[in-house]
## 1
Amino acid sequence: MSESPVLLHTDARGVATVTLNRPERGNAYDEAMLAALSQGLEQLAENPAVRVVVIRGAGKHFQAGADIAWLEHAASYPPERAFAASMATTRTMKLLNELNKPTIAVVHGACFGGGCGLICCVDIALATPEAVFGITEVRVGVAPTPIATHMVNAMGLRHTRRYALTGERFDAEEALRIGLVHEVVAAERIEARLAEILDAIFLSAPGAIATTKRSLLEANGLTLQAREMAMLSHESWLQRASAEGREGTAAFRERRRPSWYVPPS
């Protein structure tokens, strides 16, 4: 098992790399990963030596969404703890979305559920052509409420409605078309492209970047307030604890169709 669910490294230039580090689980998140990611983002926000944050996934995939085993376990939490678990996701996404540094995601392999939420919250998202995406929560009977506002902000309501309601998987070119990622770059070229973007960022004043980012979000109502966070988290845990949530996670674990599926006639 991986030693730490999130690895942080900052180089001499001020590039902080955040690596999601549960490769044996496709970097799927649980409470431990969310706590480590939140703590790491807070540390990076407060560190004046950090100029830019790059988010990566260890191993074969970028981020495969919520850990199904954890979702199944969390469905039995008492209300207060269940709400706190959903709030952890909501708060982590808020921290990333409103971070006072420019943020870049480098996406490869699977990017499902909360993984899509993460890349909706960064300033720049790059993907390899082989990356596969999906807002898949509804397939296991839960709802993507902690990432809902960020998906609409990134992709618009029209595209979010399509993919959040069907749970369909789609490729990198479709992710580019709907605004989920900014560029699709060949795997052998993506590090060079990242270097070019980093160089552009280092030509820009860090204080001006922070002010510009804050003003863009605040003036357009794209920051989450406490009331909205509570509403999103409340709806999340209620659906997770519902009969659908329990059936969906069980069906996924047992590799069968959920009870609500109606086959073609």
## 2
Amino acid sequence: MSNKKKYILIGVGALILISLLSSIGGGDSEVAEQKPIILKAAQTEIKGDLKGCYELVDKDYKPKYDNIWGYAVNVELKRTSAQLPHDRKEITIFPDSHKSSAKYCAGFGIEILDADGNVIDKKNANATPYSWDEMTAAVQLLPEETTTIKYYFKSLHDAASIRVTSMLMENEERKSATKTESKSESKSESESESKSGSLSGLLKEMTDLSDDEDLKDELKDAEAALEIAGKTMEVAGDMLDLLK
């Protein structure tokens, strides 16, 4: 092999080596820029209506990035031994309120804080959650049980810690349905009483105006029968209410 060819091969090898070293160095730089985000628990005590009944588990939270949803923050909640301000069987999450007969609605939110404790992003406690099953499991926790709720954020720039919020309120959908049902029942009872009163009054008037003693007796019997029928309807209504 001539010296010229040797020099050419050495030059090509040197270029390849420089390229490899450059790519390795660039990779280290990218890794350094994509340093994992670690969020602390700003406080274990949650804010809002369920304060004292739940707490945020004190640990490091490491969000995972998803190309579609963004950064996923899995918040771990724990039920304390404190008594709930509501019956656990009478609770639903906010998105399910329109189809639930539960008396109360509940939910949990999250606040993202910077290093100075300022809120830079948040998800409200009454907002539609990413997972309805996770939120339902959270509001149904028993004392000392834990569960996780996932929240997504497009960016966590300057994020340093998290804080959990809560909300509990009466199910407005249920209240509205109850009022409508009550008005309907009241109207029905009023119409029934009005009709009964009109028939009874008419019979009495006919009895007073008639000179025929036999007709008077028949009309009185009819009035008595009407009163008995009215009382029977009242008893039947009470029985129906009990069956409901």
## 3
Amino acid sequence: MAIPINSDVVHTPPVPAATVMVVRDGEQGLEVLLVRRHANSGVLGGVHVFPGGKLDAADRLVAPGALDRPVADCLQALGEADLDVDTAVGLHVAALRETFEECGLMLGHEASPDVVPRVREQTQNGTAFGEAVHALGFRLPVSCLLPWSRWVTPRVPSVTNRRFDTRFFVALAPPDQVVEHCVFEATEAVWMSPRAGLERFWAGEIDLAPPQIMSLCQLSPLGSVDQVQAVARSRAPVLIAPEPFDVDGVRIICYPGDPSHSCADRAWPGPTRLIFRNQRFEPEGGLVALLG
């Protein structure tokens, strides 16, 4: 599927959002969960993405006692000097909620698989996710979320006509729960190694948007959940502010550390730019560059 390129300037500020890279240890090593959005979706239709979505107003209204960690810890974990506590908490709650809504997973409840149908019953009756979890006697397990990166869409987005300020988290998949993708938003949910995801993308078997491409590149050298968690705990979330430009009508997206990016410090090993060719974004150097 060809991804249409946007060239319009978006004048509205980016919308706060949360995304979760749900990981587990598979037989061949690290695996990450991807969901394929419906082809008629307004954002990235047909593309494989990590579960996530925008911050809802109700996500900010969770009482401090409903969390399994102090609210100040949520703020400190994101490492953003200008962020308020309510938004920091809301982003964590949004990450849990979106993973529940899109994949049927209650992160952080490894020993309580029955919590999924109980929360679903409450939310289907109109109760907000955070309120439903707390009403059932559970605390929202925001401590299971480890901030990984922050992606801020530029004023001229390349693959959508909207701007988002998305915090990427990593979280361990609950071992006793089964993934059930939301039939209204997605057509499948699949586990694959980061390397396999990049290989399938390169072979044309799946479509990926730039944030997923670059995030899989970051995960690809890591062989286990323990390694992912160790990396997440060892550093502050990386700020990624892509900067697009056109050369002879060809869209290029560059990232920190690229000669054309305003930030000279490289954010991660691997490619620092993606080029739109063959109806998708590719790095210079092809699959070898993606796999490091």
## 4
Amino acid sequence: MYNEQLENLINMALSDGELTEKEKQILFKKAEAAGIDLDEFEMVLDAKLYEKKQSVKSETPASAAPKSDKFGDVKKCPACAAIAQSFQTKCSDCGHEFSNIDANVSIQKLFLMLNACENERVAQSTSITGAFGALMAQGMGQGDKVTEKKKSIISGFPIPNTKDDILEFLSTAIPNARQKGNFLTKASPENKSHNDLASTWFSKCEQIVMKARFSMKEDKKTLEEINSYAKEIGIK
């Protein structure tokens, strides 16, 4: 319908079934330079976008795998469609700040996993076989398997990828990274349960702080908040 260059640009812009404002501006600029009526062009563009969305929808199998929610996924900037590498909190092309309306989703997932482990402990304590097995394991120096599983979950949990998630994660995790009680009360059952995980939480906070400092060099305000959290528990 239009010249080859414009048709190619349209196909590239619509290849993912989405049309960003930046892509639309570029297409309209090219159409105007080619002397095409912009109202007509917009109508054609909308029709092509609708067709592409329907095509993508029909090609997607009903049993397709769910969209990945890994924090390290590479994404496109919603403002200019530039590729945003993992752990970026701001677009390097246009300066758009990435935000997450579900800012506490990371920490929620983590605590759900830890609560599931604790439920295993409760189930074991109500089972004679489970309780006997736990005592035997401790007697053989194997330690508390539930606690070890929690440590593994915390250590291996993905680092958040947005500024809001990072700050939310740190604000919630830091109290868990502090040792609880004094030299007389540290070994009480309640404090011991907390303190067994404190060093693991500390390591996780340290990991997040280091990554955030590296990726947020240009975001001075957020970097100040990150360093404030770090100072609370003695991360240098």
